[in-house]
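WARN retry 2 of 3 for item q-0093 after timeout on previous attempt; input resubmitted unchanged.
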Amino acid sequence: MPLAMRYMCLPVAFSIALSLSSPAAAEVIASKSYSYFDIRGKTADELDRELSRRGPTASGSSARHPGATKIRFGGEATYIQDNGRCRVGNVKVTVHTQIILPRWNSRRGASKELSMIWDALSSDIKRHEERHAEIARDQARAMERAIRALPQQRSCEAMQELVSNESTRGIEEHDRLQARFDRVEAVNFQKRMLRLLKNRINGRAGGK
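OK item q-0093 returned
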């Protein structure tokens, strides 16, 4: 049963406000939700076809995958103007992740071997997508720190441009980190699945 998982990242929105006297503050708000798509089948081939037919598509591709993570960044920043200089005041970066996972609806009556394979596969899909969400949260924190550390500028227009450039750089770095994670996962998938199956077989044997 082949596995190819991708994340989906929606465009960042970063709104700006000007403040003359508000104190500096920083905040990262992360939220996460889950959704599911149903599949049916009594053989590994049938489950594979269902995943290929019903799985979510990744951003910029028509190919379907066993799981996906939609990611949306946003944020707000205020500027403080003082003595002819402008600096970042309040910074809030938001990130919402929606994890999309498969749900097997015809498990009843399936063989124990297929159930064991599915348990190993579905747990790996969930682990993979949870890691995509974790990468996004980590990058949101990195973006908040980078924006907060930006140097003062002569005007708030220049400060706004600096914030915009930094947020763009942060999203690009996020995309690179996600793509690198997918590459590593693809290389190690077979070894990982064999290890999961071996652990589940040993667990069943130990429980007898």
